[in-house]
Amino acid sequence: MADQPPQQPQIHLQIELDPVTAQGVFVNLAMVNHTETEFTLDLMYVQPQAPKATVRARVITTPKHLKRLLQAIQENLEKYEARFGVVDVGTVKQFPPGAVN
User: Fold this and answer.
1) What is the model's pTM?
2) How far apart are CA 101 and CA 95, in angstroms?
3) Which of 9, 32, 57, 90 could form a disulfide with 43 if both were Cys (CB 3.0 to 4.6 A apart)?
């Protein structure tokens, strides 16, 4: 019988969500910046034809956690598209350059 590494005990995490945060915020623009040790995601809302966007949330995380988040988002998008069809992003111009619409 091969030696098996000991399994980590499963942790049950309780997540607290206050009523204001539970309402969520709508965003339609994101900017991503990084340093050697962290990524910063600014999630914004910009009104059509408006020259100004409002940051509604800022997330600062580590490169490893960002990669896990990216994988989780990709997996969920694949599940979404399998159920509802491919999401067509078309030829949306990026404003400002480097932002994610």
Assistant:
1) 0.74
2) 8
3) 57
The residue with tokens 């988040």 is 69
CB-based contact 29:100 (threshold 8 Å)? yes
pLDDT tens digits, one per residue of 10-64: 889 999 999 999 999 999 999 999 999 999 999 999 998 889 999 999 999 999 9
Q: Read off the tokens for 79.
A: 């599940």
